[in-house]
Amino acid sequence: MDLLLHLIQREEIEITDIPIARITREYLDTLELMRELDLEVAGEFLVMAATLMRIKARMLLPPAITEEEEEDPREGLVRQLLEYRRFKSAAGDLERLETQRRLLFDRGAPAQLEDPQDGELQPVSLFRLLDALKNVLQRSVPPIVHTINAEPISLEEAIAVIRGQLTQGASALFEEVLAAFVTRLEKITAFLGLLELLKQEQIIVAQEELFGPIWISWRPESERRLDSLEE
Q: What's the CA angle centered on 160, arms 136 and 148, to 5 degrees?
């Protein structure tokens, strides 16, 4: 549901009028990219893919075959999406309340100074990162003048390159980070390096608005220590 809702929001589509063929193609493309990245594709993703394919097949049937069906084949999926979006919105409201509560301190508690610009940034989901990677991979590459058989870059080497880029400035755009890597394999390895750094909570990936440019920066040591204490 998360991936499907993400695609609908990205394409600015009304949930009540989903273009199944278009969304199914985008959904399957995203799953294929996840497989290429060797990311675990849970069974729920495959079930949703099968559901989209079934709805697409039913909508392609001639009217004479489907005239006995009163309900739009998409109706059941639309109801699930609306309910899921409602619960997700409620969860977001609770998370915002928790964030606001963290800004309040009991009497005698030391105040924690925060960068006022941090509040302007929003966290980035995995699916938004996959969209950004797909855009980078789809861009035209410069013509090859001559071929050199080089050793494939390792994950550790990609992380070292990323570390060197980010230490030169406070933050960098996602596209700028991947621009240092030439081939498709190198860019994919660099993307996996970013996921590893994100998993280790060494970097912060955020954007100013939904589907806006993605910024990457090193996570301050003080925030790492604070998270460790909370855990």
A: 65
